[in-house]
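User: Good morning. I'm curious how MRU would be positioned relative to this chain. Could you predict the structure with it bound?
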Amino acid sequence: MKRELLDIPTVELDEDKNVMRIIDQTLLPGETKVIELKTAQEIWDAIYLLKVRGAPAIGVAAGYGIYILACEIADEITSGVSTVSEQVADANAAPEQVAEGFYAQYKEKSDYLNSARPTAVNLSWALKRMDGVCRQVLDEAAGSKADPAAMMKAVTDRLRAEARTIHTEDIETCRKIGEYGLSLIKPGDGILTHCNAGQLATSKYGTATAPMYLAHEKGYGLHIYCDETRPLLQGARLTAHELAAAGMDVTLQCDNMAASLMKQGKINAIFVGCDRMAANGDFANKIGTLGVATIAARYKVPFYVCVPSSSVDMNTKDGSGIVIEQRPDTEVTEMWYEKRMAPEGIKVYNPAFDVTDHDLVTAVITERGIARAPFDESLKKLMNAED
Ligand code: MRU
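Assistant: Good morning! Here's the predicted structure, ligand included:
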């Protein structure tokens, strides 16, 4: 087991080469390969194909991704070869024209990245945050009659700073989730998790795994049970891999074995991540989470959701408003098998996520504190609180 996995950033920006580097998670655990992304197509594909995945990591990748694409547009404008309009490429163009020309292309690229995956709110959250900065800098620069080169430098500098802030905030957020989560576990506990809400899904610590990493540092001797997580096996390929690399006691089971573990009393608590939480506490997470929560309620096992505030969508009233990503049939029928294992032509149901009802949730752990039912009230209070 390679300990170095945990020392490689899930997502990082190389400012000198102006590329984003990610661990290609589709190759884990067999191969630990870092790849470079530069074009809009490469970034979109990496998100869609789950080379970079997990809600917070997708947000970080979106921030760096749109920054890299913004630099490309800015370079075209300053070198006078902009394809957006002849006026923008003209050295005598009015600052407002340059700003609007830049923004039109920027928005197009941002919308394109945003279309890669619909469920994890961090993608649109990060792009919206970058968009706010972009608009503000362009308006200021146009207002002060900045020349095109100065305007392009101002906007790319601020976008890079914002993308870096999204990244560093994620590390701090996960650490705080870990501290709150740690207060809910005891030495020797059996902990079950589903999918990968680990370091590989974030910038460090993970969300659901953050309490496990902190407990491990303190010598708690936890027994971690990872659901393999059909069909893309994030639990087997990623969570089991990274937690074992950290030296934890990890057991892997197929998703349909979790009930039997709970019935035997081996699980003291369940920690899962979240792709989008609605204002009432309903939340989307990897397909199968709803089943885990339902069984946990049957056997009275505490069920905790670890949610950075960036994954709480107060504009969505309840789970019925969350768009669920549908994935290709072949992920169920062919992937991971030497030969296709299902009948040709069979209909396949392959949603990437399901929505767990808030009444199955014991508590929501955020970087701002722990929310308990009634969640519509407790989440509103936390989301309105200062960091
Ligand atoms: O399809 P994936 O691998 O991106 O799904 C990931 C999950 O469902 C995670 O649990 C969620 O994004 C939280 S990650 C901290």
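The domain at 3-174 is CATH 1.20.120.420 (Four Helix Bundle (Hemerythrin (Met), subunit A)). The chain has two domains: 3-174, 178-384.
Let me know if you'd like a different ligand tried.
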